[in-house]
Amino acid sequence: MRRAIGQVLLLLLLIHGVCYAQKDVPVTFVANTVSVKDMVDSLNKAAGEMYMGSPDKAREMAGKALLLSEKIKYNAGIGLAYINLGHVYWSQSYYPISLFYLNSALPYLPKNNATLLAECHSAIGRTYLELKNYQQAINSLNQSAKYAGNDAKMLGEFYTEKSLVYIRMRDYTLGMAASLQALKLCRASGDDNNTNIIYTRLSSIQRLQKQFQKSIAYDDTAYYMSFKTNNRRLRAKTLIEYADNYNGLKQYDKAIGYATRGAALADSIGLMNGISDAYRTIMFSFEQKKDLANALLFQKKYNAALDSLNESDRRRNTELIQNYFALNDRLKEIAVIEQRAKEDKDKIHFQNAIIITLIISLLAVLTALYITYYNLKQKKLLSNKLSRQHEALLVQKGLIEEQSANLAAVNKLKDKLLAVIGHDLRTPFANLRNIMSLFGEDNLNLEDMHGLMKKMEPVVKGAELTLSNLLEWAGSQIRGINLTPSVIDINLVGEEMAQIYSYQLQQKNIRFQNIAITGHMVKADEKHIKVVIGNLISNAIKFTDDNGVVTLSSHVAGKELVVNVNDTGKGIPQDKLVKLFDLHSHYTQNGTMGEVGTGIGLFLCKELVEFNGGRLWVKSEVGKGSTFSFSLPLAD
Predict the structure, then answer these.
(1) Could you give all domains of the chain from N- to C-terminal order, each with its CATH number?
(2) Per the confidence metrics, is the pTM higher than 0.70?
(3) pLDDT tens across 177-191, in order?
(4) What DSSP string runs through 175-243?
């Protein structure tokens, strides 16, 4: 018994020692937190210095700083990371995204750090300026000046941005005064970045007042300083400013040369509005030189750049939403980890209290041995229970990840389907609306209206089939496919389809042959089979030229009936056949009379046939036609 008591005491002392050793963890954590803060500050500083020259690298650093700051709840780091992200998107002309991040920074910035608050409000004002919201820009800049106080550098930034507001408002006198005041303050504070910017402001004022030589002189200084400050964005803008000045001096070849260099530099750093400005300037130069061919070429490039800018804005906004949710997920993970750490810490404190109590009890009375044994046994049971719970959590995690993957696939399919519907259903309805508008304004007579309606009929029929297939498919996705099997005669279904599509057949003078075997019945859902045969016959009519033939036939193969829909149409290339039944690949083409479709019909046919115990396949030869076949089990 004494040996057992001694072993238990030794065990308790060892456990107690380990628990005391764990008390050192907060010290290590504090040390690690200080180290992470230093890393965050370093990343934010680097991002702030390089966002003009290497915006993509700066965005990566700022994003990393933000995540690290969130993990250790370092509010100043979070705020500065948001500011740097705002600077990056501003430098690449994505102003709404920039404004989002800059406004997100304000709640995290220390209230006693006037410099950071002034910088943030100044950047917000600058972004509102680019968005042409001049009143809001002035309000934000005035707020920046309030925080700047007597800080020469921050006041220099204030006057720098305010000068541009006056320039955009075409008040060149106030713009010149603000620029000169900014230049004085920036030189005094050694702020080369804003000094560089001020020279471009002065250049713009002179150019807008047609003082081109003076403007070029300021451009020379701005261009030289852009290398010193590594401001590639400003350098690209300065090259375009050169080009505008030489256009003003009618030295068009020089203007083209500078604008071409500016476009190349803007393209290398992703400055989309810089590219469009350069193409606009080159287009003007060629127009003045009467070189209409090159002028037209750069007009197209300019329009393409504007389209690309709009498309990039849409992509960036999408990425912003995705990044926002991704960031929220990461923050939730961090919160969960912190909660678990807190629970573990509470458990350690609780265990310490129990162990101390047990040691005192053992020293006081022998009966403490039983209490110790009981507690150890309970601990083992708890451990086993926790292990089982952990295994259950792992299983649940696997299910959640699988559901997440399925949801992502469904979302991707939904986005693709919506894109297809938006393209293929919008066109016929837009055409109908335009025809009705012209008719309502008496711009069309009845003969013209009749002719247009005949041309629109196959397009509307295609849209109607598309909508029907879409509703059938959507219903199957939402409610699932309900199967009501019955005995079906394919020949009778063919006769019904001949009646339904008689008008389309007459329109193209196509002969329909129903030679399906009578008396051989299949067991399947009659509604599903009608949808399948209807889609296949509609497609055959769509892609068969006038005076062609569409044939419905069948033959017995073992315990199945094989149904064929053959046409004498234009056929399908072999490399496209594998895409027909895949909704994701979305292969479709216009019919012989301009009929359109989404490609969902064949996908729905395949799904319905397989659900009824059959399979669907196709054989085709370009120029000779296609044969779509499917099998169904014969009825007993």
Answers:
(1) 22-109 (1.25.40.10), 112-230 (1.25.40.10), 484-633 (3.30.565.10)
(2) no
(3) 888 888 888 888 888
(4) HHHHHHHHHHHHHHHT-HHHHHHHHHHHHHHHHHTT-HHHHHHHHHHHHHHHHHTT-HHHHHHHHHHHH
